[in-house]
Amino acid sequence: MSPLAAALRRFPWALSFVGAGAVWLGAIAYTGGQGAGGMLTTALSLAVFTVIVGLGQMFVITLGPGNIDLSLPANIGLASAVAMKTMESGGVAFGLLAAIGCGLAVGGANYLLIWALRIPPIIATLSSSFIIHSIDIAYGRGLQIKPPPGFADFTNIQVAGVPLLAILVGLFTLAAGVLLSRTVYGRSVLAIGQNERAAHFAGVKVEPIRFATYALCGGLAGLDGALLAGYFRGANVDIGDEYQLLSIAVVVIGGTSVAGGKANVPGVWGGALFLVLLQTMLNTYGVSAGLRLLLTGVIIVAVIAAAGGEKPGR
Amino acid sequence: MSAAALPRGGVDLRRALRALLPAVSLVLVLGAIAWLNPRVISYFGFTLMLNYAVPIALATVAQMFTMTCNDIDLSIGAFVGFVCCITATYLNDNPLLGVALLVVCVAAYAGLGALIHARSLPAIVVTLGMSFVWQGLSILLLPKPGGHAPMWLQTLMSARPPYIPMPILASALIAAVAWFGLMRTSYGAILRGSGGNATAIARAGWSLLSARAMLFGLAGLFGVFSGMALVGITRAADAHLGDGYTLLSIAGVILGGGEFVGGVVSPIGAVIGALTLTLASTQLLGFLRIPPDWQVAANGAILIIVLAARVAIGERGKRR
Hints:
The structure holds two protein chains of two kinds. Chain A has helices at 3-10, 14-31, 36-62, 72-90, 92-117, 121-139, 149-154, 164-182, 184-194, 196-201, 206-231, 243-253, 265-284, 289-307; strands at 158-159, 162-163.
């Protein structure tokens, strides 16, 4: 193993940041250095939304093979509508809490389906996402409520070119890192992902931890819905659609193991910045929508293939 | 891993239950439809109601092949859409080039399986990325809905054989072919073994790489058939024609008694699952006069109810 490969193995998240940097350079090389800073600012403010759901998805994926939340888009959509309605009547703080509460409830319901019906999470969250989607359509029909101006501004504030949200989510990411590696909860998640049976025999309360993790992921999606509605000035049924792929892709590109038991918190940022900057670069080049989709897909697959997975039968 | 442990005794009973449950759900759904509207239980009623069952069944069988080696293909819907676009453009205008492109598509799928195996990649993520690739290609090929399905394909899909409605005949044929290939041939057993106990298959001297490539190639082949069947019905193509097929196909396999791990699949069950879903999601909801807002939710609810029935029967209840 070359020293470079060894370093990458120790810091798997580094690759995603290197990729993000390379794509950024690729974009500004085309513009001749113009708008380099602005590009970063935009990338940061868009990456934030991916990071929030990406962190939730990361905790869920870390629980082990098969654990995944496919209800995020529906969850985000519903929460964005709930946030706009409650903010109108009860103020910003109440609206945020309501959106998070709505997300927590969806996450909890997901877990109940998985637990009570013993169905694989992929199908459970898919089925529940259908139901949530319908609730959202019925509840948010013709919803034209703009976010309170204060809240909309808050999601757009920049401090020296760095979006305030990015700073806050950065701090939140640190907290998530501590939660994962320094608390009983986080250690339990990792233990379950490495070997559920062993974790169970070691006294980890497997089911409560799984419940908490799905609820956490749902709650983060709820928060994301509220923030997205603020940033894009209004709720929308399909406001979260792109986060289906993005939330999973950033987790994997960031170096978290899909087999579970090995999470990587900083990688979520690297992966999110990489994917957002990739879109920016392709936009700068002026490629068509079809070509942009094609190249995004090819690059995601190529990056994952280059990084490689664990050896099977480990 | 204890997941591969076989229950002692009772194997036949569990097998029988597993095989029976999809059929029971189909009968229940059919019964409900017959009760709501008896007139549709006729030759033409079935021909119309099950119109879209053929492409859905083909996509479900495609998904079943990837699930045989414990993978999931989240790109099958986008792939079916892309095949629709090729079929409605190149295959119609220049059949030779069209066939060549479709062969390349199948080869791409096989290559993907080989890549996933060689680099031990997570199939979920790779196929999620591939769904972008297929969708991008479809939009490049057919930016606006259009094209024209080849005449022979339209004729084939609107065929009216005597006595038995075409969709039922076609579904039976699909189920029989998949069942024979996967359950009754020796290489089929190897393919299922690659999902059930990969180490054992490798030690017995079989190449897991070729097994993965073969299963993905088969998925690609049935995906191609699915897209062709779909465009034969719709007559014109659109990049988003197959969008719902990813979910439908996964649900169909599970409904049909397949499992996510262990190489446990049932080709006949998968086709029955696809028929049940087609009827439940399109016809039953219409007859029940469920408002459009809640139709998506009803789909989810049907899925949950059937899966709950599976637990109630105790098929998976004991395993933890």
